[in-house]
Amino acid sequence: MRVADSATVNRSDDAPVVTMVVAMSADGKITTRDAAGPRFTGPSDKALLRRLRGECDAVVVGAATIINDDPAYPLPAETRRRRRDAGRWETPIRAVVSGRASVPPTARMFHGHEAPALTFVGADADPGRVRSLAEVSELHRGADATRVAPAQIVDTLATAHGVAAILLEGGAELNFAFLDAGLIHEAYVTVSPWLIGGRAVASPIGGDGLNFSDIVPLELRALRVEEGETYLHYRVSLR
Ligand SMILES: NC(=O)c1ccc[n+]([C@@H]2O[C@H](COP(=O)([O-])OP(=O)(O)OC[C@H]3O[C@@H](n4cnc5c(N)ncnc54)[C@H](OP(=O)(O)O)[C@@H]3O)[C@@H](O)[C@H]2O)c1
Asked: Within 10 A of 136 (CB to CB), how many other CB atoms are there?
């Protein structure tokens, strides 16, 4: 079965569109017991991630994903040229959410890009860690001790940086914070042909989960199968 990809989300206001992207095994795991991250996916999935990064204005990611995977966010020269010609940053803004400021300032997301990096920390984050993160990124504090509200992240990116399209790259904890806040508008889900197992191994959305009365319906926008992987593109029904 193949459902053709269709137009992007229709929104009534001009708030940024948040698109979650995630790759999981056939049994719904986003990493392995030894924390290998999404290394189990094939080249088409990596190409999809590059395309989505190339299209968005900002990526938003959780501290544990940066600590485990340390992504550098490279983009092909052609994509960077197209973005520059369109008056955009060559690569997207990178924003990490790290309530306790656990993310290290040496992470590759902070270095080698013209576009700014942002760090969102909680009000009680360790001052020394916060200072060193402020040297490599634009620092924002949440109102709560160790949590930052997704609405603050989206508002800051929109008002301070003119961001219209956000790519939410996980991991599971951050994805739940956005889901719970009703701030995921689209989702790309890759189902990769592996079994991983593990009760403590993360699935795409963690946190406390939702009650049956609150579960979030999806509308399938596109489906394709390539090299054994299934690619799903959903629109998320807003609450
Ligand atoms: N397969 C895939 O597509 C995919 C994609 C992404 C990640 N992953 C995998 O997922 C795993 C990480 O997922 P995870 O759920 O453990 O972690 P995560 O969501 O990446 O990071 C969790 C951490 O982010 C911070 N955080 C998240 N939400 C926050 C909020 N609302 N306010 C303040 N801080 C917040 C906290 O940092 P502090 O500790 O600093 O407070 C928290 O400990 C890794 O193994 C990674 O490889 C897989």
From this structure: 16
Task: Provide the residue type at 230 as one letter.
Answer: T
Ligand 1 atom 9, closest CA: 37
Q: Report yes or no on 2 lying in a domain.
A: no
DSSP state of 16: P
For residue 153, what is the domain's CATH number?
Answer: 3.40.430.10
Our mutation pick for probing the ligand 1 site, out of 22, 30, 40, counting the most ligand atoms within 8 A of Cβ, is 30
- Number of structural domains (the chain) is 1
Task: Judge whether 45 lies within some domain.
Answer: yes
For residue 167, pLDDT over 50 is answered with yes
| 61-119 per-position pLDDT tens digit | 999 999 999 999 999 999 999 999 999 999 999 999 999 999 999 999 999 999 999 99
d(Cα 10, Cα 7) in Å, to the nearest integer?
8
pLDDT for residue 23: 98
Tokens 């191994």 sit on residue: 201
* Residue in 25, 70, 97, 119 to alter for ligand 1 test, most ligand atoms within 8 A of Cβ: 97
Amino acid, res. 125:
A
Residue 9 falls inside a structural domain: no
Ligand 1 atom, smallest distance to 30 CA: 1
Residues with CB under 6 Å of ligand 1 are: 22-23, 30-31, 35, 37-38, 62-65, 68-69, 97-102, 122, 146-148, 169-174, 177, 202, 206
Could you tell me if residue 7 is inside a domain? no
